Give the backbone structure.
Amino acid sequence: MLPAMTTKKKQPPAPAAPSPISEAIGRRVKECRHEAGKSQETLAFEARVDRTYISAVERGIANPTIETIANICFALGYTLAELFATLDDVSLAPTGERRANAATPPEIKRTRLR
């Protein structure tokens, strides 16, 4: 048997849990979409994103840019203020760990100018 056939494959890391703010925005987008009477597909077409992305936003998995959120609001007939107005009770405290900067700067040797 070849050595490569006996080694175990590394499991991909488990996906991180959505942050509270992502989940709250997703619920609000879904609520507004239902009020507007639009399907995910229609909203995605009008907001110029993929339907699966709208689904990911509504589930709190995606982290949309403010431009994408603005496009979604425009397609739904809402303003950004109306979308975010009901999110006052959501914690804005940082969640999870940030990635450490893996880059190490080169050592700079200082010399005196004479």
User: Anything to note?
Assistant: The two ends are 67 Å apart (CA to CA).
